[in-house]
Structures are given as C-alpha cells and as structure tokens.
Amino acid sequence: MSTRRSLRIQEKKFIPETQDAHRTPQDSTEGDLEEAKTNHSKANTSTKNGRIPAQFRKVRGKLGLLERLAKDMPLDVIFEIFCYITPSDLLQLARSSKDLRGILMSKSSESIWRIARENVRDLPPRPEDLNEPQYAHLLYEPYCHVCNQKRCDDVLWLFRMRCCKNCIWSTFTVFDSELRSSLPAEIRYHQDVLPMLYKQQYGHIRIAHGRSCQRWLEERLAGRTRELDDIRKQRKEAILNRLDETGWREEAKIIMSSWRVYLDRDEFSDHKLVKQAKKLTEYGWNSIKADLEKKLSDCKMKRLLTTGPRNPTIYQRYSDLRKEYNAILSEADLREPFPAVGDIISHKLFSDLIWDTPHDEYLGDDFFRLKLSEYLPSIIDEWRPAKIQELLEVMRKSHPAATTSDLHLATSIFECSNCWGHEDIHYPQVFYHTCCQTQVHDGHRDERFEPYVSAFPYVRPWTSRTITFNETKSQASRVVIQSFYLDPMTTTIQDMYSANPLIECMSCTSDEGRMFTRWPLLSLGHRNHTLRIKSFGEETSRILAFEPDTSNQHHMEVLCCAHCNKSLAIAKLFNHLEDFHRVYVNTDKQASCSSNIEAAQEHWYWNPRLNYINHSLRNSFRYKEVSDGTSQP
Q: Which parts of this chain are annotated as the region Disordered (predicted)?
C-alpha cells in the first residue's frame, strides 16, 4: 500500500521566481501588509454578517481534524485504529465526513466492522440478511423507523426495525402468539401482533436470534441505566460536600431520611438540580447554589414549625445506627427472622448509646459497627423466640394445637389486613413484610425518639397486629399438595418450590387453549378453581415445549445467594457464583435458563423480603392441540 502524501504538500503552490525577481524588500513588505489588511477586512465583514469565511465553510470539528485524518493518514494506520472501537463508533465516524464514509462503506472495510463487532461483549452474531453497517444501525441507532421519534428502544428483531409503541398498531395487524415473545414486554402482553405468514417465512432460527438480540439490548440498556445512576450518585455526593462548606449538609441529610426513604427516594435526591446525570463543575455549582440553599431553608423552616428542633448530633447517630444495621441485614441469612431496624433503634441498650455517649468517644460509623458486632447476637437470641411465639399465637387462633414447626409448612398461609388484595405471606417472609415494620404501637416506646419520628417514620419495631391466618387458602393448598402425592402435614414451602409442580387449571380452559401454571402463581385467581396436577402422560413434553422461559426478564433481585446471602436478579446467578465463589454449575445447553436455575437450587433461595407472588421462573401459559395432532401455544 503506497503512503499518501500530505494534503498540505500536494496543494502547496510555489511562486515563480520571475514574479519576485524585480520586487524590492520594501515592495514585498508593503504588498504583504496590504494583502493582510484586505483579508482581515473580508474576514471581519464575513463574521459581522454572520457568514463563515469561505475557507472554513466545509470544515467539520476542530479545524477539520477528521477530514485531515481521512486524507493524510495512511490507510493501514486508520484500519489499525478502527480495530479498537465499536460498531457504534464506526457509524458515527462514517457520518462525519465523505472521505471516512467512502472508506468505511467500502467492501474492503468489512473486516474492520467484524472486528469492531467482536469487541462488544455477548453480542449475537450478524444475521445473514444484514450487512455489517445495517446490523450496527439496527443495534445502536435508537429512533423509530416509522415516525423518526428520537428515542425508541422497542426493536422488532424479526422485521429488522425499530418501532415505537405508538406506531406498532398502525404498522402491524394480527400477531402470532409464539413470535409475540420476541417483542418488547410493553407490546407483548397487549395482543397478538405477528401474522402467521411471517412465522413461515422467518422460521424459528430468526426467532431465536431475535430473542438473543433482545437479551443483549436489555442488558445494554440496564448497563447504561447503572452508569447514569452512578453519575447521579457522584453528583449528589459532590453537592453534599459543597453544602458541607456552607453549613447546609445536615439539613439535606434530614430530608434524605424522610418518609420516602424506604423507597430509596427523598425530596432532596429527587430535586431537579440534584438528580441529573451530569458531573458537577465549579460553574455548575455556582449556578445552582442559591436555588438549593433556598430550598433547604424552606424545608428547615417547615420542619421546625411542625416537629420542633432536632439535635443534629443525635439525629446523625440515629442515621448511623440504621445505616450500619441495614448493612448487616444485606449480608445476613434471612431464612430465619431478623429484628427490624425499629427493634434495634428502640432497644434500650442502643437508645442509651445514642443519647449518653460523650462526643469525644463517638467514632462515627465505626462506633455502631463495633457495638452491633458486640451486642447483636444476644439481642437476636432474645428477640427471635419472642416474635416467633407471637406469630404462633396468631396461627393458634385457627389451629390451637399448632407448634413452631408448623409455621414452615406450605399450608401455613398468612395475610396482611392492610395490604390490598390480601396476598399470601409465608414464613419467614412475614417477618420482613413492610406493614409489620411500620405500624405504630405501644411496645418499646421511647419518648426521646419522638422528635425524630418524622425523619424515621417507617422505622418501627416488628408487630403482628395486621397479620391473620387464612384458613380458606390453607385448606385449598392442602388439596393441591395431596394431589401431588405429598403429605400436607410435613411439606414445607421450600419443598413445594423445589417440586415446582406443573398444574392445569380446568376452570380457565377456553377456546384459546388449556391453562397451565406453577405453584407460586396459584394465588393469582386459580386457588379455588378445579385443578389437575397429576402426570399428563405423553402430552407432558409437548406441553412443556411451550412453557415460556422468563428467567432473563427478571430484573428484580428475587434470589439470594446461599453462599453470601447477596440479593440477585435471576439472570445474574451463574455469573455471581463464578465470579465471587468460584462455583461452576454444570448447565444443560439444551435446556432453558429457568430449568438450569431450578436444577441449581442448592446455591440460592428466594428473597424473603419480596412477595412470593413474584417468585416464579415461569409464567402461566396456554396450550392448544389442533385437529391435525399438532399443538399450539
């Protein structure tokens, strides 16, 4: 490959010697000055008139550096550089200048696109019906191909297009239910939208590829969300540090511990000047400083009028204790009940430490970390039997002979009278139910804490006053368990999750097909229906072939690692086991991700802090056998 000559050298014009032969130095100087004045005058005139000088009109970027790159730099150097970037970067470069577009859109550059694509982690291979730039465009250009809406993350992979929810219904008509699963979740559950003729045309290979692309896109969007969240956290921390210099940090921390803290949201963090995915600069701080301080001043005045003054030192100690105890809970094995934060804050031992510890003996976060490691085991040994007995007394109102071991049974179903819908609650989930940790009651009352209640309103000792035993659901579960050839007197809730029986709801059968579900989803209106739980014989394999695999759609942290108790999303389990515990699970490549996770139950357990109604690796589905002997989902 020949080396290119510099554009500057190629275009340089040499002045003939004959033109300068009769010029004196004075003539040259006067001529040069006159020419400079003329050029300067023209440039100023063009600038004043709002027009760009002619020599700069086609220049892009800083002095057209990209254009110089494309014209001056050898191709082999350009190709070497491009091997280290992504297809998204190549797309942007191809649109930056005609020369770069000519290079990148040529057939000889295909290997560059392929190498750039291989730089992207977990990206599915390029489909045969798209070339490299087309595939990159589909993956990275987030606009609707119908209405050109600038932000569209809904990709119809089967049609190789992006289509926003507003355009989907005007663009497509009747959809096939199997291909529906390749659509975004917002569209998928409204109605069937893919014609049967596309199923015949594209086949299952394109369907599988589309699902792989959708999983990659969801992970990419989730990664971008995490990246923006990190920027917001850094911005908030930078603002807090600035407020510390002006004396307003304490007020901001009081607002951050307001009644919305249990949702990880508060009025300060949600403020439009704070919640920005934008790094805080000196100029940025000076532009928002006055508005933020006025907001904090208004909040402080309102707080003092309603609650009276708080001691900032005492408030900080309550905050530190709650923070350290929540850190302990995040690493604790929650399969047995743990005290609520309110039980710890209201405990006399820690209450005295908060109020009576001299300032010079208080070591900040380390103080309560050390005190919790010293006193928490004895507090748990005292608290746990008492609260288990309290829950047992609730059950004995329906079963007087109930014992502690009966709390673990799958037939022991509680519900909360405060919750809409009265959803099922099992042991030990009942000890982490929000309503049980936020109720105001007479026990463990500490008058010194009253001025701080508005800052920590959802920090209360655990109570069972809203919990009742549901005898009707208990009897219905007994029938289900017996139908599965298990003993309802000994079968625990964990046994049922391990068995994970396939259940047909005969009452929900319709022209659309037979309804099938799993144990955790029975409470969704099926518990009082006619159920069939026995083996389905030769039909079993055909039925299971249409059961949707939803494991990669779970972003909520519904699992807990059995090794470190960290909360995990379902799709993150195997990577976590490998990265943090060097545990390599032998997975069946032919089986679904849900099946592999079910087979690895020794390494995880359901997160008891969440409602069990969300604890399912699979959704309910319909199965229909048509007249020719084939089956349809």
A: 1-49
